[in-house]
Amino acid sequence: MKRLQIFLVTAVALYFAFVIVENLKTGEPFNWFNFAFDMLEVALLASAVILTTFASLHTNELKRERRDLIADLSEARREGNRWRSAARVHVDGLSRAIRAQFHDWQLTPTEEDVAELLLKGLSHKEIGVLRTCSEATIRQHATSVYRKSGLSSRAQLTAFFLEDLLAPSNSQVAKTNLAIVPSVDKN
Predict the structure, then answer these.
(1) Which of 70, 83, 146, 161 has the greatest number of C-beta atoms within 10 Å?
(2) Taking Cα atoms as reference points, which of 144, 168, 164, 167 lies closest to residue 97?
C-alpha cells in the first residue's frame, strides 16, 4: 500500500510539473481557460498511463498466480499418481478379494455388477440408467444380492468389505486397550 501511495504522489507531482512546463514552453500569455484545458488534456494522458500501468501490474500478478496454481496442481497430480502407484497392488488385491466373495455368495454376473455399483455408492436409479433397465429391476437384483450374502442393506454390504480394511486410529486402539486392561487393586 505504501508503494502505491508513493507512486500516486510521484505521478501527481510529475503531472503538475508537466502542465507548468507546457504552459511556459508555449510562450503565449497566461490564460486560465487555456491552462485548465491543458490540465484536462494532460490529466487524461496521465490517467491513461496510470491505468495502463495498473492493468499491466495486475496482469503480471494474475500470470504469477496462474503459474503457481499450475505448479500446485502438477504437484498434486504427481502425489496422486504416486499414491495410486503405491496402492495399485493393494487395490487390485482388494478387487480380486471382493470378486472372490461375490463368487462365494454365488452371485450371477448381473448381481455382481449391481453389487459393485452399490459399493461405489450409486443409487438404484443411477444403476438402472447405466444398465439400461428399470429402477425396480435393480432393486430386485439388490435384494437378491442381500439375500445371497446374508446381509440386509447397502450399508451392511459396504461395511462387510470396509470394516477390516480401515484400521482403527491410535486413539481408538488406546481406548480399546484401556477398556480391556483389568484394574489392579493396590490395597
Answers:
(1) 146
(2) 164
